[in-house]
Amino acid sequence: MFTDRAKISIKSGRGGDGHVSFRREKYVPNGGPDGGDGGNGGSVILEIDEGLNTLTDFRHKRKYKAEDGANGDKRNKSGKSGANLIIKVPEGTIIKEAESGKIIIDMSGENRRFTLLTGGRGGKGNQNYATSTMQAPKYAQPGQPARELELAMELKVIADVGLVGFPNVGKSTFLTKVSNARPKVANYHFTTLNPHLGVVDLKDAKGFVVADIPGLIEGASDGVGLGFEFLRHIERTKVLIHIVDAAGSEGRDPVDDIHKINNELITYNPELAKRPQVIAANKIDMIYTGEEEDPVERIKTVFSAEGIKVFAVSAISGKGISDLLYYVQNLLDGIEEELTVFAPEYFPEEMLITGNDPYTVVYDEAADEYVVEGPRIEKMLGYTNLEAEKGFIFFQRFMKDAGVLEKLKELGITEGATVRMYGLKFEYYD
Questions:
Q1: For the chain, what is the mean pLDDT?
Q2: Residues 165-175: what's their mean pLDDT?
Q3: What are the residues facing 199 on neighbouring strands?
Q4: pLDDT computed for residue 384 by the predictor
Q5: In b/e form, how buried is each residue of 268-297, taking b as 16+ CB within 10 angstroms?
Q6: Strands, E, within 321-423: which ranges?
Q7: Spatial separation of the C-alpha atoms in residues 270 and 265, rounded to whole Å
Q8: 30 pLDDT band (50/70/90 cuts)?
Q9: Which tens digits make up the pLDDT trace of 289-348?
Q10: Is 32 helix (H, G, I), strand (E, B) or coil?
Q11: How far apart are CA 254 and CA 214, in angstroms?
């Protein structure tokens, strides 16, 4: 079955913890700190795979996790960084944050590779905290925790031209005739479930990609049947070929069919009404010549007034198809090469750093230290490079804005007092 939507959960790798150890060798009774740094956790990366055209794989596996970084070790040995996790997706896949439905990234156009979640940074070993006044630090920095995200994935087929029309009007047969696609063709009164892509090659003209958008029914724009599943694929196309059963072989009026399908397109997305459209009056080899009114001429009379070109064609014999294809190519040549790429609305790196995670500020009387802990503090320590001046200033601002400094003052902290945060110690100055 064709799958164009899926939900998965992803998790970056946790950073390895820094190590606490001291050099111990013969004749070196008081060696200095030699605890190594933890390795960085792996990141979760999206990448377009040209060989994929469905999201079927994500129906069988829903949880994805990058590798954790290894802990540091003695003798200044750094932990190994975790491997990145690369998730392959078909072009045209839109990635959303599942709960809000906001777009994170549209994997289309120039968006070929994208880092969804950065792995946690490894913690510093105790060798990094030796100073002239503290030559034997007994603490190290913990690794940055992993981060998780629930994703909703949605595939919108990318094609230059979309075939629309009621079920069983000959779209699959038409696609088979004009391209290298080989969809299954049968006389079904329901509809094809799979959007099929085919490449149309024209002599002395540029080819184009055409998609057989599964047959629509009335109410599709309201979600009737598989309406939304089908209509989303039309949004990326530049030109629409509206195929209609001109012979009325199933007892429907072709003019009424065209109006109904166009109403569904407009109701779903008014922008679709602005797309250039061509009508392929199909099944002309089934028209009874003794009829008083030529149904193809009737279609032309009605829709030529709307500026829509009508071609009489037979998807079985191929009659009239060549003229239609060259006309469509001329339309495409007049359209600027601009792919519809949906703009991002949700930024994981920013959303997951900020927030209202709890924290506590207490006084440890036994150690004579003020202890600040909690998920929010641990996250911020992991994301901030305290060795850089800008990073340290950023962290100080965070401490003030989060109310940590105010709580320390409420506990009676004085200048020169020690503040401990997850193995890191600071001297407090107002």
A1: 81
A2: 82
A3: 209
A4: 66
A5: beeebeebbbbbbbbbbeebeeeeeeebbe
A6: 360-364, 369-373, 418-421
A7: 7
A8: low
A9: 666 678 899 999 999 888 999 999 998 898 999 999 999 999 988 887 666 777 888 888
A10: coil
A11: 18
Distance (Å, rounded) from C-alpha 310 to C-alpha 304? 7
Query: Bigger pLDDT: 196 or 251?
Result: 251
Q: Element (H or E) spanning 82, and its range?
A: none
Sign of the dihedral through C-alpha 260, 261, 264, 269: negative
Measure the CA–CA gap between 325 and 201, rounded to whole angstroms: 10
Contacts of 372 (CB under 8 A, 6+ apart): 359, 360, 361, 404, 408, 419, 420, 421
Alpha-carbon distance 327 to 334, whole Å? 11
How far, CA to CA in Å, does 89 sit from each of 67, 131, 150, 293, 417?
A: 20, 49, 16, 51, 53
Dist. CA 153–CA 132, nearest whole Å: 54
Q: Please give the DSSP secondary-structure letter assigned to residue 213.
A: P
Q: How far is the C-alpha of 390 from the C-alpha of 50, rounded, in Å?
A: 42
Look at residue 60 and give its three-state secondary structure: helix
DSSP state of 201: E
Look up residue 72 and give its two tokens. 């540091």
Report the 10 Å Cβ neighbour count for 388.
10
The helix/strand/coil state of 44 is strand
- Cα(181)–Cα(197) distance, rounded to whole angstroms? 6
In terms of pLDDT, which residue wins out, 255 or 388? 255
Phi, psi of 371 (to 5 degrees): -110, 125
Closest CA to 176 of 212, 204, 148: 212
Beta bridge partners of 245: 282
Task: Measure the CA–CA gap between 115 and 47, rounded to whole angstroms.
Answer: 9
Q: CA–CA separation, 255 vs 257, rounded Å?
A: 5
Paired tokens of 99? 């709960």
| Cα dihedral 142/125/384/104 (nearest 10) | -60
The stretch 397-421 carries a mean pLDDT of 88
Predicted TM-score (pTM) of the model is: 0.57
